[in-house]
Amino acid sequence: MSRAETPDTAPLPIIAPDGSGPAEAPRRKDSHDERRADRHEDRRGEAAADRLEEVDAPPPGAGWTTAMRTLDAGLVVGPRAYTAREVAQRMGVSTVSARKIWRALGYPTSPEGHKAFTEADVEAFESVLELVRSGALNEDAAISLARSIGQMTDRMVVWQIEALVEDKIVSEGLTDPEARRAAVDLLPEIVTPLERAMRIVYRRQLNRAVKRLTVRVEAGLAASEEGRDGSESDSPLPLARAVGFADMVSYTTLSRTMDDRTLARMVQRFETLSAEIISAGGGWLVKTIGDEVMFNAETPETGAAIALALAEAIAADDELPSARVALSWGRVLSRMGDIYGPTVNLAARLTSLADPGTVLVDAMTAAALSRDERFVLVPQPPRIVRGVGEVRPSLLLNGSAQTLLAD
């Protein structure tokens, strides 16, 4: 059956049990259920969209509406020409199935009958759907990849807008509302260079990730076996990583005494300095959580060098309080851009035990580093750690290691 002949109640294609490619789902049985689900989702969508339109309406004030319309015309590719149902018909699937894709990509619900989508939007949705129809991915995998695009780009654009607002406040002395209006006016000018850079960097980062998540995995797993007695709970996990945390001391107390701009500068300085050191050392910044950064590295030695550099650089920075740093080497599970497992939990717990300006490691990590003259390990008294049990931490110090330099 061609796409043009496919009824608009068809769900996303299903991969055949033998793996041979897409197989059509039963039409007659699903038709009634799909239509009923469509009607139910449409009613919910209308109510939700009414609320969303109130939230997303342009702020009151002269020029805001015109500015937002100008920005909309500059950023949205093509006129909004399709309703949700028309998009689903174009794609040859049910509205429910089509909605899975655009929600995963971060598109909001639109009112029934409202022309919210452009030709370019439909092309984006069909790109995801084609991954399933071609047999390259099953539905769950395709939706997961779409969600990675939606969530990561959402965080990215919020970061970029807030950075523009902060710059306008600091460099031009604007108030917050004035700075936000200025950011709206500036965006059409800078979006093309940023988009070009993002396309290039995406391919570079994908290339780098492929190497660390596939090519070099076996070497890391082999190295992680050193020092094990066979009882470690992380042994079935698929990747070996050095996992580290750096946590600013007294952040909660300091944040209560600072105005919002001072607090923003401190957090930005902490994240920027940490990201530079982690990148310079050959590691990866997994995430930031306010006063804490989480990173990983492919070897315990690389992780140790980064951990020491973070503790030293943060302590020496006049704008920042000291940081507690901890590192643990072991196996992890990587999912949705994050990492999980006992090794991560242990590193997080060790961070709370470290003194300001110091780095703690667990016994297995200490054993892995003990033959490297760049590091000095000072055993500490055993501690009982919630959710872990007894741990034997060691204080990690510089031996002949060179300090990592960040710009």
What report would you give on this structure?
The protein has about 400 residues and is α+β, with helices and mostly antiparallel strands. It has 2 domains: about 220 residues, no CATH class; about 170 residues, Nucleotide cyclase, GGDEF domain (Alpha-Beta Plaits), CATH 3.30.70.1230. The chain contains 13 helices and 12 strands. Strands 3, 4, 5, 6, 7, 8, 9 and 12 form an 8-stranded mixed beta sheet that branches. It has a two-stranded antiparallel ribbon with strand order 1-2. It has a two-stranded antiparallel sheet with strand order 10-11. Strand 1 and strand 2 form a beta hairpin. It is globular, with a radius of gyration of 26 Å. The termini are far apart. The N terminus is likely disordered.
The percentage helix is 40-55%
The overall number of domains is 2
Strand content: 5-15%
Number of E strands: 12
What sort of overall outline do the alpha carbons produce when their principal axes are compared?
globular
| Structure class | alpha+beta
The Rg value, from CA coordinates, equals: 26 Å
Beginning-to-end CA distance, first to last residue: 59 Å
Parts with pLDDT < 50 across at least 5 consecutive residues: 1-9, 14-35, 41-60, 227-231
**Average pLDDT reading:** 78
The total count of helices amounts to: 13
How do the SSEs run, as a string of H and E? Answer: EEHHHHHHHHEHHEEHEEHEHEEEE
The major beta sheet can be summarized as: 8 strands, mixed
